[in-house]
Amino acid sequence: MYQQMIFVNLAVDDLDASKKFYTELGYSINAQFSDDHTASVVISDTIVAMLHTRQRYAEFTKKEIADATRTSEVLLALSSESREKVDELVEKAVAAGGSVTGETQDQGFMYGRAFDDLDGHTWEVVWMDPAAVEG
To answer: Do 104 and 113 form a contact (C-beta atoms < 8 A)?
Structure first.
């Protein structure tokens, strides 16, 4: 059965530092789709972050490339299997050089936190009680 995938393309200032950051979160680099200007970060079977140097990223767009440390370009949200896993990923991000952004959102049935990566891209991590989704 076909599963649709998402490839999130992000401009980064230091590709090696960004690769290190994402591997410290527990993700892997797919060497087959990586080179000196791009790193393919496997987040799951259906989610891949394509990290590009600014020069490479500019090859894909005629628009100005956002400086995510100053402007919001997009909010990326990842689901998590538990509240503890939300905290674990955010703590790994901070230990790897990222920063917590925003307030912890705790609505009982839903729990979320967010971090900015080295380039200011915001990643939200959210857990939702499966019982709340079902009914």
So the answer is: yes
pLDDT at 30 over 90: yes
Instruction: Please state the pTM of the whole predicted model.
Output: 0.93
Whole-angstrom distance, CA of residue 129 vs CA of residue 113: 15
- Specify which residues 7 forms β-bridges with: 48
Six token digits for residue 114: 């967010």
Task: Convert the pLDDT of each residue in 81-125 to its tens digit.
Answer: 999 999 999 999 999 999 999 999 999 999 999 999 999 999 999
